[in-house]
Specification:
With about 250 residues, the chain is α/β, with parallel strands linked by helices. It has ten helices and 15 strands. The strands form four sheets. Strands 6-5-4-9-12-14-15 form a seven-stranded parallel beta sheet, with helices on both faces. The chain has a three-stranded antiparallel beta sheet with strand order 1-3-2. A three-stranded antiparallel beta sheet has the order 10-11-13, with helices on one face. The mean pLDDT is about 90.
C-alpha cells in the first residue's frame, strides 16, 4: 500500500472516530505501529491531524488549536507562508509570534528547533509547542479574547514592552500602498505595533487575498515591517506598487 493510500485511510478512520491511539489505529488498518507513527508525523506536519500523547485526533477536537472560521480560510497558502517563515528562524532565536492563523502555521516546522524562545499571546501556539523540550515559551498575559484564543489589553502590551526579540512574526487584516497596515480592531492593531516596536526584524505573514484591501483601522505605515511573506497569488501590479514603497517581498 502506498503512502497516499495509507494517508487517505488514516485520515478517514481518525475523522470517523474523533481520536485514536496509535495501536488501535494500527489494528484497525492492519498496518504496523512503526509505519503508522511515521505516517502520522508527516500528516500532522500538513495540519490535517493533531498528534496527542500516544495517539492522534481530528484538529477540530482540540479547542485550543482550532480557530473560529480562520484556519480553513486559504489554508494551502497559509501553510506555504508558514513554512517559508519558519525557514527564517534559527536555533537560539528569540521570536514574537502573534495570534494569527498564518503565524500559527509556522508551528509544525519549529518543533525541531534548539534553544528557541517563543514569546506569544496565542493559546493555540502554546498548546502546539508546549511539549517541545527545546522550545522555551513565554506566554503573554492579559484579558483573554475567547474567539481569538489570545491575550490582549494593556497588561499584554506592558508584558511585550519588557522584552526584545530578534524577530517578530505578525499578521494583518489588510494592507495597501495607499493606507499601509490595517486591522479589524484596535486591540489587534496595538499588539502588532508592540511586537514591531520591540523586535530587530519584523516579518509580516499575509496571504495574497488581503493585499490591496483595507480593514477597519489604519494603524501603521508599510515601513513598520521589514519583510512581507506572501503566496504566489499576489497580483504583479500590487507587488510592484508595494516594492515602490520600499517593501521587501518574499513569495512562498
Amino acid at each position: 500500500m502506498s503512502y497516499l493510500e495509507r494517508k487517505k485511510r488514516i485520515i478517514g478512520t481518525v475523522y470517523e472516530s474523533g481520536s485514536l491511539s496509535v495501536l488501535t489505529l494500527a489494528k484497525k488498518l492492519k498496518i504496523s505501529p512503526a509505519t503508522i507513527r511515521r505516517d502520522l508525523h508527516a500528516i500532522a506536519e500538513e495540519g490535517l491531524l493533531t498528534r496527542t500523547h500516544g495517539g492522534v485526533m481530528k484538529p477540530d477536537d482540540n479547542p485550543l488549536t482550532s480557530f473560529v472560521n480562520k484556519q480553513s480560510s486559504n489554508a494551502p497558502a497559509k501553510q506555504q507562508i508558514g513554512l517559508l517563515a519558519a525557514g527564517l528562524v534559527r536555533d537560539g532565536d528569540i521570536i514574537f509570534m502573534d495570534c494569527g492563523s498564518t503565524v500559527f502555521a509556522m508551528c509544525p516546522h519549529l518543533k525541531k528547533m534548539n534553544g528557541l524562545t517563543v514569546i506569544t499571546n496565542s493559546l493555540p501556539i502554546v498548546a502546539e509547542l508546549m511539549d517541545c523540550p527545546a522550545v522555551r515559551i513565554n506566554l503573554i498575559g492579559g484579558e483573554l479574547d475567547k474567539g481569538r484564543r489570545a491575550a490582549h489589553g494593556q497588561k499584554a502590551l506592558d508584558h511585550i514592552g519588557s522584552y526584545h526579540a530578534d524577530k517578530a512574526f505578525v499578521g494583518v487584516d489588510g494592507l495597501s500602498p495607499e493606507n499601509g497596515l490595517t486591522a479589524s480592531s484596535e486591540k489587534e492593531a496595538s499588539i502588532t505595533g508592540a511586537f514591531a516596536a520591540n523586535a530587530g526584524n519584523v516579518y509580516l505573514l499575509c496571504d495574497s487575498s488581503k493585499i490591496g484591501k483595507d480593514a477597519y483601522m489604519k494603524f501603521g505605515p508599510l515601513s513598520l515591517v521589514h519583510h512581507l511573506l506572501t503566496d504566489k497569488g499576489l497580483d504583479t501590479d500590487k507587488k510592484k506598487a508595494l516594492m515602490r514603497k520600499g517593501m521587501k517581498i518574499h513569495v512562498a
